Amino acid sequence: MKPATRSLHAQRLDPVLRWLAANPDAPPDLHHLADLACLSPYHFHRVYRAMMGETVNATVQRIRMHRAAVALAGTQTALRDVAQRAGYESDAAFNRAFGAVFGISPGRYRAARSQPSTTQEPAMYPIAIENFPGTVLAVLPHRGSYQDIGPVFSRAFMLAIGRGIATPDTIGFGIYYDDPEQVPQNQLRSLAGMPVAPDADIGQELERFEIPAGRCAILTYTGPYNEMRKPYDWLFAEWLPSSGTAPADFPMFEQYLNDPRTTPPAQLQTRICLPLK
Description:
This protein is α+β, with helices and mostly antiparallel strands. The chain has ten helices and eight strands.
């Protein structure tokens, strides 16, 4: 695909990704999405798959299944309601779809996450103090629940790939300013993006953000994104008080080492980075 064509397609698909993120419960109507992209319905799906690396339905299912896992682990919403909100009228169909993604049925997933933390959490997580080399990111801002940042990453990557400043293999970075236990959900601030060359032309949609070089405590976490509260709690409640270190005046950030489009949630790898003084 020529750079000019790739850039044009990224601009046209941006309102589509915005709509999918804002309307996860709505069925993705081909003609409506094609209109948003100013593309022919005959070619929309091919353009979307070429730019995003997956179909529209796959994008929608990832959003819905992540949200279903959040609801199962963190609320008492009835399984029937969780299934319907994910777009499944049949419990059996939802069970099969959820099991295919998470490797466990929705009921067993909820039961496992409702057990006392002493039986679920490991005694410790892999952690090391490293000298982070610093990097420049191209990012998009997100305001609201950290659990809803996934579609913002999709937009950021599409825009960056469209400009030729990133590739599908580029690892993602998330910046998280606030403690979700202390700040109201609708006021949480975060950034989604990826490293780029310091002199990269990031265009008008993306913003430039720099992570400076410095010491970081880096916790390596393997598992679903929606369960990262556990390693965060351990990092601050167990490791930090006994480490002899103090946090620097800079927000937490995360590095995502594999692709959530192709990696089962249980195998997702994240480096949770705590800048140190």
